[in-house]
């Protein structure tokens, strides 16, 4: 009988194996969407990932018969511990073949690490911060994954539950088919709200014009989600990194910004054409031809993803979301987009889910993190 061995990633070759393992595991799966290999490698570089300035991280590979059969990353976010008093080992980047001995060895490594650090809890899958991918898929295994969601086989949660891990947090995702037209009452309602609160929709002629509002967007994210128990403010280093990483992918026409009479940003929403199929075709690489698939996905696409929304607390439940959705509809109508897929939203975050309630949203995916208390 073959034994499972788990070793820590110590060099660049092992890191490449760590990054590429899920691409091999899901090679013939039509729903899996690979990440960009270079971006995944940069995650583990302190020079590239600001979260490593206040976090500790280790990566591990599981082997069987000298072949990689699983992986897991373990992290401790000391900023989270310091600011929220939450002390736990985060686990993420967890993938494994359908062999309970492999999943047991990987989770066993997480437990061992937590005991070494005198920490009484592990939770995952998640990244370093609340802006990273999180949640193991429990519904929607037959749906195409997105850039910002984790995809996994149906046996993953079954393995974790057999190992004694239990549900910690739950996320929901929705798919919306956009109507061919909007009722006249929506236009009248939006005009009324805009006049009552002296609001205006900002129009951008170039991507560069958006830059002056990026910091205000991050401020709005903090204001929007600070009431959630797990939220930590976005650091200056994170802001810089996200600007550099995601701004080049943003299409100015897919951004909605609403300001008050003093030109202060009160709400924003970022959608993007779906790059899922482009990522599948590129197989994790922008060169030599991966960039072409991204370019084509941006030009012609009937599907979009909802990435971020921020609404100042003073304007929540005042009809601002109706303005946002009407603007998104206008954009999609011009671009030929028929379907919108939301980002994962915490099940408890009802205020954000109200944004979709009038448009027949279908809850097509669910995901959760699993936790284990360590005695």
Description:
By secondary structure, the chain is α+β, with helices and mostly antiparallel strands. It is globular.
Structural class: alpha+beta
What are the segments in which pLDDT stays under 50 over at least 5 consecutive residues?
Answer: none
Number of strands: 14
How are helices and strands ordered from N to C? EHHEEHEHEEHEHEHHEEHHEHEEHE
Shape annotation: globular
- Please outline the major beta sheet: 14 strands, mixed
Quick description:
34% of the residues lie in helices and 26% in strands. The chain is an alpha+beta fold and 375 residues long. The protein has 12 helices and 14 strands.
Features:
single chain, 375 residues, alpha+beta, 34% helix, globular
Task: Write the topology of this structure.
Elements: E1 4-8, H1 12-25, H2 37-42, E2 55-64, E3 67-77, H3 78-84, E4 89-96, H4 100-116, E5 121-124, E6 136-139, H5 155-162, E7 166-177, H6 184-197, E8 200-201, H7 211-225, H8 236-246, E9 255-259, E10 265-273, H9 276-282, H10 290-299, E11 303-311, H11 320-335, E12 339-341, E13 345-346, H12 350-353, E14 362-373
Parallel strand pairs: 4-5, 11-12
Antiparallel strand pairs: 1-2, 2-3, 3-4, 5-14, 6-14, 7-12, 7-13, 7-14, 8-9, 9-10, 10-11
Helix pairs in contact: 6-11, 9-10
């Amino acid at each position: 009988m073959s034994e499972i061995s788990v070793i820590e990633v110590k060099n660049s070759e092992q890191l490449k194996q760590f990054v590429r393992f899920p691409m091999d595991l899901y090679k013939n799966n039509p729903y899996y969407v690979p990440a960009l290999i270079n971006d995944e490698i940069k995650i583990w570089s302190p020079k590239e990932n600001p979260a490593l300035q206040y976090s500790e991280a280790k990566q591990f590979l599981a082997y069987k018969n000298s072949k990689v059969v699983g992986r897991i990353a373990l992290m401790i976010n000391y900023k989270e511990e310091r600011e929220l008093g939450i002390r736990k080992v985060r686990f993420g980047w967890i993938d494994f073949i359908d062999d309970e001995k492999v999943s047991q060895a990987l989770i066993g490594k997480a437990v061992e690490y937590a005991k070494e650090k005198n920490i009484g809890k592990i939770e995952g899958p998640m990244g370093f911060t609340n802006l990273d991918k999180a949640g193991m898929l429990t519904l929607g295994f037959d749906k195409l994954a997105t850039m910002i969601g984790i995809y996994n086989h149906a046996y993953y949660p079954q393995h974790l539950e057999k190992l004694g891990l239990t549900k910690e947090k739950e996320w929901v995702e929705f798919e919306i088919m956009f109507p061919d037209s909007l009722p006249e009452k929506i236009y009248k309602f939006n005009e009324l709200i805009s006049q009552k609160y002296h609001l205006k929709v900002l129009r951008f002629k170039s991507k560069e014009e958006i830059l002056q509002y990026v910091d205000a967007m991050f401020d709005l994210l903090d204001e929007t989600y600070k009431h959630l128990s797990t939220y930590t403010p976005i650091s200056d280093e994170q802001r810089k990194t996200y600007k550099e990483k995601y701004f080049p992918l943003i299409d100015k026409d897919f951004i909605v910004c609403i300001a008050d009479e003093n030109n202060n940003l009160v709400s924003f929403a970022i959608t993007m054409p779906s790059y899922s199929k482009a990522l599948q075709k590129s197989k994790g690489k922008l060169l030599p031809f991966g960039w072409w698939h991204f370019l084509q996905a941006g030009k012609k696409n009937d599907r979009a993803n909802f990435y971020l929304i921020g609404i100042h607390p003073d304007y929540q439940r005042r009809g601002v979301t109706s303005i946002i959705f009407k603007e998104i509809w206008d954009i999609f109508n011009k671009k030929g987009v028929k379907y919108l897929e939301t980002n994962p939203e915490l099940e408890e975050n009802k205020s954000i889910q109200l944004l979709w309630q009038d448009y027949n949203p279908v809850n097509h995916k669910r995901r959760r993190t699993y936790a284990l208390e360590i005695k």
